[in-house]
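Archive transcription. Copying these from loose printouts into the bound notebook so they stop getting lost. Printout 1 of 2:
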Amino acid sequence: MDRPAPQPSRRRILKGAALAALPYALLPAARATARPQAVDYPPAEWQPASTSNYTVSDRPTSYAIDRVIIHVTQETYANTLAIFQNPQKQVSAHYLVRSADGHVAQCVRETDIAWHAGNWSYNTRSVGIEHEGWVDQPEYFTDALYAQSARLTATVCDRYGIPKDRAHIIGHYQVPGTDHTDPGPNWDWVRYIRLVNLA
């Protein structure tokens, strides 16, 4: 005849309940701080690009960061994330801003070199910010997209001492050797630089 399985003692049950009731703040620091360290810009969501699509570095020690490059994806937000996560594509940007609500995803750490400019020298010295939309569809350039992108750019400029002007916040079309036209003629540079400076 089989014996019945021993029941846990009252003491063991109470110990388990006490542990379950411990506040999250009392857990070890490594667990409590792991998520915030995943992004360089705290409002961003971490959506990592494939490691095949950027170069690991230790900027600004290895390369000074003195530019922000503004891009438009020519794709949807979801498709752009999928492209950055596809190791065959060999393209990435540090950040991606969604049109509808200005939500920001970080895809590459700022210390690393994203492959966004099509020019190695400009890649090494810049932070690339992609914006969901198409250059010929200005309806994608929403108030939320401009506002959240400007806050992000202002934070990057403050972190690296980058002047908040058109000489240092440039469009992809201004990168030497590029054949890209983004962010295109519908991007409101006057408004954008004003928002960056007000952020």
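Printout 2 of 2:
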Amino acid sequence: MSGIKKQRGLKRYYKNLASKIDFDRKTWLDFENTETWERNWHIHFDYEGHGNNSFKKRKPHLDKLFRHFDLLVDKTKKLKKGFHLYTVLLDFDSHSDALFLHTPNQNNSQFPFKISDLKLDTTLTNGQLNDYINNLEGFEKLYGKGGEAFCLIYKKNVGQPF
């Protein structure tokens, strides 16, 4: 044996990425009672980091993330308080890609976010991710560099502006 363990069930895994909606199975994002929310609520879609070494494997996770982004846009119309709805994508760390919904709450005073040092010009070196982001329609993009280059993505007129 070569010592390489073959992962089973990946075909079903990727099929489910394309069709399942995570909000249908989860109860922790209660739009009727936002007081139960944790600070800066977020959800990751590539828990195992499948897309870290292959954009072909990362793209289905990104597609699901932005599908859920649009679902949250509809759900946030019910909110009676201010919020930020955004996603952060890191250059090469698919595991850390996340969709965020941030509201004022008792656990966090950083609302609204005041973000500085972000640019309109890309800081990403991952060409395939950059192309994917550039092909997104209806989204605003801000770029920065921390430990790794990243892109913050949001929609105008959805929540409070950055």
